[in-house]
Amino acid sequence: MKSRLAVIAVGFGLLAPLAAMASTAANTVISNTATVNYNDAGGAAQTPVTSAAVTVTVTLVASAPSVSSPPNPAPVAQGSVTSVPLSYTITSTANGLDSYTLSATVTPSNVTAVTATISPTSVALGGTTLALAANTGDTSITVPYDGVAGASVNGIGAGSVIVIGGNTYTVASVTKNPAANTATIALSTALTAGGTLGSIVGERKTFTVNVPPGTVTTGPSGTQTVVATGTSVASPGISGSQVTATVITVTRPVLTVAKFVSTDGGVTFGANGTAQPGTVLTYKIVASNTGTTDATTVAFTDVVPQYLTYVSGQAKFATSAATAYSAATALTESAGGYTFTPATNTVSYNPGGANGTVPGGSVLVLFFQAKIN
Amino acid sequence: MSTRVSAAFCSLIAIFLLALPALAKPRIVIAIQQFKEVADGRSTKLVPAQSASPGDVVEYQLVYRNEGDEPATNAVIQDPIPKGTTYLANSANGDGTEITFSSDKGQTFAPPVKLTYDVKLPNGSVEKRTVTPAEYTNVRWTVKQVPAGASGKVVFRVRVN
Known about the structure:
The complex is a heterodimer of chains A (373) and B (161).
Chain A: E1 3-4, E2 29-32, E3 35-39, E4 49-50, E5 54-58, E6 66-67, E7 76-77, E8 84-91, E9 98-109, E10 117-119, E11 122-125, E12 127-129, E13 140-144, E14 161-164, E15 167-177, E16 182-187, E17 200-211, E18 221-232, E19 239-241, E20 246-251, E21 255-262, E22 280-289, E23 300-303, E24 308-310, E25 316-318, E26 329-330, E27 338-341, E28 346-349, E29 363-372
Parallel strand pairs in A: 7-20
Antiparallel strand pairs in A: 2-5, 3-4, 6-8, 8-17, 9-11, 9-18, 10-17, 12-17, 13-16, 14-15, 14-17, 15-16, 18-19, 18-20, 21-22, 22-29, 23-28, 24-29, 25-26, 25-29, 27-28
Chain B: H1 7-23, E1 28-40, E2 43-48, E3 51-52, E4 57-66, E5 72-80, E6 85-87, E7 93-94, E8 97-102, E9 116-120, E10 126-130, E11 138-146, E12 151-160
Antiparallel strand pairs in B: 1-2, 1-4, 4-12, 5-11, 6-12, 7-12, 8-11, 9-10
């Protein structure tokens, strides 16, 4: 009679695990106390007895953080910037405070490989759970007490940005109620959607991944494909990555040059022609930017061919291949970047600035004349 | 034993008899021990728990003893399902006890199948529904008699939310 240990029927294997939705915040103290009411042999009620409380402290369960997927930025010209900044958010889905190491993989396609820099390289994100269901319009939420005094609960304090049911709120203040085993998080704005008891309340922070564009290998453009990841420090096997990769298109200018000659004073141009000595030849040099990015500081250099004498004061330029020589803009010798150097018999046109910039798909045309000796 | 009963022995009996009226009542004490289920390869075992993760199964073992010298009758052991946990169906046990549950924080108790609540349907009619184990708020074990010096153990399990 001394020991009446029960035979415990064990049937737990048959039970389906509860849905993972409901959770309890890390550091929550689960307390249990039993009471016994009893009578004596005569049926007279005796003073009830209460057991000492036993407690279980809930531990952190690391969870993959949610990392945003920034939209693809506008195409960037190689060399125009040292890096392209991509702005991310990372949101905790864990039941407690954890730190996350941030990393990014950058996969190049038709561009040189680059290494991204991340700022900051790690973040600490608070996390807790709803101890009471939250309703639309509420300006505060109730979460489990984390067992310590202070102005933050499980890493969430005034100024923290938290996510409840997919919406973000800024924390105004945290009040601890140890007697009720809860803490109250006051929000700067009312809830726009409710949350069920046990829902995760995760902190959100931002970080930046800076991706150098690299250099296009061939053709006018390539891409850098970026995937950022946050890895739990508490459980390094648990990480969360952006769902949709961010693709940075890197462009470069691609110049092609074509040269034509006219024997009729600049009316018709061709690759070849025949002319008598004394004829003035008009040369047309077309620099085309077949890329999608500005080509800057475009400069022409051309050595006047043998048996010809440069004709001073006849050079012109145009920004359309269709512009006739007669309609083109005249250039002045030794001005605006145009020079003829008799010693080397070289024509040079390096206008710089706006005139020297050829946008993607545009052309810059140089005309000059020389007479057959 | 010697036939010479010593005076000292007689006085011992006297003290015992004098003290008897004061002790002539039951005195129940109760203590809780908590364990958690830990998977160990293909089986699970219970280890004493101080901490647990959400999803863990915690078993509470309530050990009671009658330290008095008279039987206790109609002992009712009551334990609220701890906040932050959910009662596991069929986990409450206690040899020779009648087990009842409450879903209203201990105001009313009933055996599982009789534990119902009313739901007002959209058409205005009221339907009785059986409370699911996850909705239990309190467990109660009733022991008809705990003889003097006897002890017993009742258990239940919860899952940490």
